Amino acid sequence: xxxxxxxxxxxxxxxxxxxxxxxxxxxxxxxxxxxxxxxxxxxxxxxxxxxxxxxxxxxxxxxxxxxxxxxxxxxxxxxxxxxxxxxxxxxxxxxxxxxxxxxxxxxxxxxxxxxxxxxxxxxxxxxxxxxxxxxxxxxxxxxxxxxxxxxxxxxxxxxxxxxxxxxxxxxxxxxxxxxxxxxxxxxxxxxxxxxxxxxxxxxxxxxxxxxxx
Length: 213
Ligand code: CDP
Ligand code: CDP
Description:
Bound molecules: cytidine-5'-diphosphate
Helix content: 40-55%
Radius of gyration: 17 Å
Oligomer: single chain
Structural class: alpha/beta
Number of strands: 5
Number of helices: 9
CATH class: Alpha Beta
């Protein structure tokens, strides 16, 4: 069983994907972390993120990087959206994500292109959205709790830039898969978002079982 959860920054997809993984007893992969690790490595090695060859070299990052809390920094997210637009970077991370998705027993993955590129045959697909304002408020609160003093206006501007970059790129742009269920979390608490996500996944699984009969 493969569950694909896609959506823009701070829409709640990670929180939802983690909860779904717990609920269905499946392993979870936050694919954004892979792109963040590439971005972080580009910066550490002082490479040029706009040069595809430089970004590809950084795809060979040490797996220990994935556990570095600095990957969650706002500027690493911005840099991730620059390196992730290179087709060869996406190609270089593809197999790792596909292997995770297709492991025995299934998996939950969250990102931007899980339902469209990584696991187009996923059993259940969710597209999570929320207004830029509420997403910026959530991310701002998150950053504050980590002692990061980035202003709300800056976080909102960064979210808008990243949305435009992720949606406007040619390689695997952020778009909702035609067979995904839409979940707008703008006015939902975390608990309610998770509850509705579970209802949507159950409905997708039931529909799939019915067509298989
Ligand atoms: O957590 P947040 O939504 O802020 O970002 P993330 O999921 O960690 O992703 C960081 C960046 O990686 C995104 O802005 C995308 O540009 C890129 N990304 C991607 O292109 N494809 C994915 N499957 C996941 C992330
Ligand atoms: O993975 P993504 O960047 O889409 O978002 P997230 O990390 O799951 O959520 C971003 C922040 O919003 C976290 O601090 C969540 O706890 C919070 N959140 C919320 O306040 N209300 C929701 N309905 C969903 C998430």
